[in-house]
Amino acid sequence: MIPRVGKSGSEVPMETQMLLLEVGEESAVLDEDPSADPAAENKFYILLLPVLEGPFRSSLQGTSSNELQFCVESGDPDVQTSQSYAVFVNSGDNPYELMKDSIKILEKHKGTFSHIENKKIPTHLDWFGWCTWDAFYKEVNPAGIKAGLQSFLEGGCSPKFLIIDDGWQDTVNEFQKEGELLIEETQFATRLADIKENSKFKSLESDGSCTNLKELVDTIKQKYGLKYVYMWHALAGYWGGVLPTSETLKKYNPKIVYPVQSPGNLGNIRDIALDSLEKYGVGVIDPQKIYDFYNDLHTYLASCGVDGVKVDVQNLMETLGSGFGGRVSLTKKYDEALDESIEKNFKDDNLICCMSHNSDSIYSSNKSATARASEDFMPNEPTFQTLHVATVAYNSLLLGEILSNHNTAEFHGAARALGGCAVYVSDKPGKHDFNILKKLVLPDGSILRARYAGRPTRDSLFVDPVMDGKSLLKIWNLNKRTGVIGVFNCQGAGSWRLKEAAPNAPNSPTTENTISGHVSPLDVEFLEEIAGQNSSGDCAVYAFNSRSLCKVPNRKRIKVSLGVLKCEIFTFSPIKVLGENIEFAPISLIDMHNSGGAIEDVMYSSNDLPDRSVNVKTRGCGEFGAYSSSKPSSCKVDMKENDFTYNAENGLLVINLEGDCHVRDIKLVY
């Protein structure tokens, strides 16, 4: 799923699953007055969501006549209809509230899925992780896993969360003859032969340890302090499903089925995996037996100390509906069985969904709360870097309501920091950039995760920050006491598929492709909700990369200029007034990308008291920063006197928090 912007019906692509329209009069006010409120343009928004109706799903598509068509399909020739309630339409003046309210209305009306607020969020999201995929691909093995964890340990930044990705399962490629070259594309038709691990994970290691998966998991948890170990598997078992002739899997009644891709799929991006499976088939488990399969697999993994699973290739179901009552019905059966097994075998709904962006999956998601919001991230593909960041931000408009060491690592690290998502890398052992990781991860392995899914600001919603040659991408989020804006120059380093670049757009990333824009406290949605009482109406704004602090009125805009693949993160902290002339706003850990994510609470003394004071609860260690209009008379950390520095020119107060990452009580007295 990728975003697209336009001004006519003909620009709506096939398979559109969400359409947001902006309606309003153009205003010259912003051009004349840089401090003007962007919301003053009196914009209005209309949302169209194609939904599921019984065994049918719908999508939108434009025509050359600028018409908007509804496409309704079942994926099974025997499942037909002459009418359908295909599209949900709603409107409002706040696009983010509109999305949230609409999903909640659909949740209540449909009863087939749940809003994110009604789901249990897996606790692994709050810890730094490592995924083995890009490190080893399918060659993953116990020795490599240990080597990777050891290299993190030696660098002082150990993950607490591990995904053992594709490569651990017992699989068979029926089309690969021993001693012969691999037939191209048959790797996708490889099938699962057993629910237990393959021989790589059963071999006796040189140190005499880890002769099976359980021993490996126990060892790495104990030695490297891992809290969570997840294992990868596909929704159908493996890419090519399960092996029908397998003695251990026959009880699930698998049979070979040949996928059929819809016209919508074929009209967009061809998928090499699906093209291959159309030719070689998929070993599909009987839907009546799919819960038994998941339960057996997950029970075994749980017995090995595994804490959850990453379930991939979920889009395959949309091509297998023929003979099973349609794609929606088949997806629903598989998703319900998966949810039930996850709940039974793992705590906290420990599930990561991948390749699950079709509406069949989105509106069948009752319990799963975590999903990858884009295609695979390919760190070595130079044209993919900016696309990944932009795709995740725009996809999170919808998915956010439902569900490191390379040349652009800093760019992606910044996006992760404010995305409200998991932070994990897929580096090869010894190939880590700890300077970047330590801006994302605290010494105890925890991260400063923002409250919501990071989404584009209002002035980024209807521009193309990848290909129009002039727009920056701005992503907003909230912490408990601060807001955060990430600004990214995504121009000139990639292009959306099936779309031509604007005539003035750069075609390659160079330092000359600098683009300018503005940020403002008004870009942070719902910032007034965390400002509370006694707010001055102004914000302290801390720019991470330039390490600059300034006081900004709510309606003022700050200019920002960035080269391609460059970014800046701004922390916005509402200023509180203590008495007549003391102003204060916490920033928190100024060496971390999402500085304000460390703040747990802030309490201010009553203005009736002679001594004014501020109490800040913050976690982590390093340099704590805050804006203060005057120098405090004293500073205590955990009730002990503590030194601090104060810059009277910009009001930056800095306290060095030494030691571990527990929650500190900072008290400043004026």
UniProtKB/TrEMBL annotation:
It catalyses: alpha-D-galactosyl-(1->3)-1D-myo-inositol + sucrose = raffinose + myo-inositol. InterPro entries: Aldolase_TIM, GH, Glycosyl_hydrolases_36. It comes from the Eukaryota. Keywords: Carbohydrate metabolism, Glycosyltransferase, Transferase. It is an enzyme of class 2 (transferase). PANTHER family: GALACTINOL--SUCROSE GALACTOSYLTRANSFERASE (PTHR31268:SF10), PTHR31268. Belongs to the glycosyl hydrolases 36 family. This is galactinol--sucrose galactosyltransferase. It comes from Nicotiana attenuata.
